[in-house]
Write a structure and sequence with these properties.
This protein has 183 residues and is an all-alpha fold. Helix content is 76%, strand content 0%.
Length: 183
């Protein structure tokens, strides 16, 4: 025959259940971090709000490279490329061990046709993290653009050089492939 638990025991069991539920809620309920909020606003195209939210956070965490990086992303997506370039350049100076600001700086340079500057930035990313595959891929794309530029210049100088046309077609084929932008 089972005994019915006493009232204090039921209270203790109930308190334990409530405590476990509260712990589960605090432990397993995802909290929205300032990074999440800025990223969400940026993805939603609310660039000014994302930058404003990041700036508020940076008032008390001025050297936070992750939030500053997110500011650069929002600035770039907003179309304020000069501000994004400055943000990434400052990050590469203050945090040379981080490869992502170098990579994003390289993307800005490449988009503007400044392939030598893009190459230099990508080499910085690879120095910071030799295993950063995106930087290696982007460096390959930049080298292809540099080769294209050199072969086009050679063709201007020596229009009769028949070795250049197949090279130019081959490199153009690389750029005609889908989803090959520098990222």
């Amino acid at each position: 025959m089972s005994r019915c638990p006493s009232l204090p025991r039921l209270f203790a069991i109930g308190l334990l259940a409530v405590s476990a539920h509260a712990f589960a809620q605090s432990t397993f309920t995802p909290t929205v971090t300032p990074y999440d909020e800025v990223s969400r606003l940026t993805r939603a195209g609310q660039y000014d709000q994302a930058i404003e939210r990041a700036q508020r956070y940076l008032q008390t965490n001025a050297r936070d490279p992750q939030m500053r990086f997110l500011v650069g992303v929002a600035q770039n997506q907003k179309g304020d490329v000069a501000a994004a370039q400055e943000t990434y350049a400052q990050l590469t100076q203050e945090f040379p061990e981080l490869p992502e600001p170098y990579n994003n700086l390289a993307v800005i340079h490449a988009a503007a046709g400044r392939y030598d500057e893009a190459r230099t930035a990508l080499e910085g990313a690879i120095r910071a993290n030799p295993q950063y595959a995106v930087a290696h891929e982007n460096l390959g794309d930049v080298y292809a653009r540099l080769a294209q530029r050199a072969w086009q210049r050679a063709q201007q100088i020596d229009a009769g050089n028949r070795r250049l046309e197949p090279k130019l077609k081959a490199v153009q084929g690389i750029f005609d492939m889908p989803a090959n932008p520098i990222r």
